Amino acid sequence: MSLAALAVALVLSTGTPTRVWRLTPAQYVATLEEVLGARIALSFGAPARQDSFQNNPRALEVNDIFLSDLEDGVRRVVAAEMPRIEAMVPCRTTACLGRFVRDFAGRAFRSTEVDPAPYLRLFAKLRPTLGRRDALQSVVVAILLSPKMLFRTELHATLTPSELAESLAYTLWNAPPDAQLRQHVTDRTLARPEVFRTEVERMLDAPAGRAGLREFVLQWAGLGSFSALEKSPRSFPEFKDLKRPMIEETTRFVDQVLDEQDGRFVELLARADSSALYQSEPGGTRIGLFTQPAVLSAISDSSLTGLMYRAKFLLDRLVCIDVPPPVDVKNVKEFNEILKEAHADTAVPLRDRLEELEYKKACKSCHSLLHPLAFPMENYDPIGRYRTKEHDLPIDPSGTITMEDGTEIAYKNAVEMFRALAGHPLVERCFARHAFRYVFGRQDNEGDASVVDRAFRDGRRDGQLAVRELFTSLLDSDAFKTRELK
């Protein structure tokens, strides 16, 4: 290999680095439920708006607020579950407590190598002053707050059987490995290609597998933190009552696509739909995921549609263009003033008020990208209700998008826009990139192009891109099973 070719290879060799990876809130709760043998209510660390997947490093920051919320939540859960926990320690000898710690911490840490000695010392120190029950409770809290519970590791160039099992289980199920996966770890057979493929298929066939694919789709649609979403009670007092049926409606939609349409991407984006929440709407005003009231609410502001954010979000999700915020302070102030004036002036349509940004040199490069996706979405208010007017002025939702390959997509409204985008290969490939980001827990880069290309090519059912096939291709890649030593 020439020096030039070697240099290119090194630049493109940008696979997933070895890492210590924090569990997402959902993964931590699922692990906690597995350990306690009970359903629990625990919520922590959920941002109000989900711009990236929840397993992205930006969403997994560990700080004092996170740790405080986690500790408070775990203490409440353990206190409520103490009758169940005490039943796990039926005898009072040190040996009995040691067996409990090995089993309980082993399941919490997903490991057969547990040293019970530190926990036995903690129990012995606390028991004289707290009593047996409270000392046991403190031991359980210490186990559940241990870094070995909260984090998982990928520290080897080729993932060890236990690392591979955890990576597979937490990616597909958002839960720890089950008994069958753990057996493959014990007998060291999981890395065999035929065994691994069989396990992937088994896990996808399970209810938890379908739930995992649904979770990916919901997070891709911006609903990962919907439970934390709030609207202005003055502007939308009805939202608090609509919130639960909204997410239930969208969850049913996704499940129907996964079950009845084999998870085909075109159906996610362009399946004809209507909202049961807003039944008085005219027909033909909704299509696919991005005109669902829940999604529209999630990508809107508290009292306004937040049309620039909606457009920025759709550019990322549909064509993988990340529009950065203005970096010049003067431009930021100017933009905010224009936006403020645009929303305040109700005598002129908002579209006319904002289109002047396309003629400003500092704004044109971004807003010429944003506006074609922003204006069609104005037919839906901040809680996703269809409308044809804003402040009694007609909304013009028409436009034209120029794709990266030079093709132009003209449309009269959002329904036509999404229907046209659903069949475009650049949009499909962008979806494959987002699937990569979810499966690998990081942004893709140039060195990942071959993995994404393979998923884009192989992730099809009867010629159409499908969620399950995408995941199967990504999981069965060498890139999923290896890490780069840094």
How are the secondary structure elements laid out?
Elements lengths: L2 H10 L6 E4 L2 H12 L27 H17 L1 H6 L6 H16 L7 H14 L1 H13 L2 H4 E4 L6 H12 L6 H8 L6 H13 L1 H14 L18 H22 L4 H6 L1 E2 L12 E2 L5 H6 L8 H13 L9 H16 L5 H5 L6 H14 L14 E2 L2 E2 L4 E4 L5 E4 L2 H9 L2 H16 L8 H10 L1 E2 L2 E2 L1 H9 L2 H4 L5
Antiparallel strand pairs: 1-2, 3-4, 5-6, 7-8, 9-10
Describe this structure in words.
It contains 24 helices and ten strands. The protein has helices spanning 3-12, 25-36, 64-80, 82-87, 94-109, 117-130, 132-144, 147-150, 161-172, 179-186, 193-205, 207-220, 239-260, 265-270, 293-298, 307-319, 329-344, 350-354, 361-374, 414-422, 425-440, 449-458, 467-475, 478-481; strands spanning 19-22, 151-154, 272-273, 286-287, 389-390, 393-394, 399-402, 408-411, 460-461, 464-465. It is globular, with a radius of gyration of 25 Å.
By secondary-structure content and strand pairing, the structural class works out as: mainly alpha
Average of per-residue pLDDT values: 90
Main sheet specs: 2 strands, antiparallel
Helix content: 55-70%
Count of discrete alpha- or pi-helical segments spanning 4 or more residues: 24
Relative strand content: 5-15%
Number of strands: 10
- Give the N-terminus to C-terminus distance in angstroms: 23 Å
Rg, alpha carbons: 25 Å
What is the molecular shape? globular
State the low-pLDDT regions, or none: 1-13
Strand arrangement, largest sheet?
A: 1-2
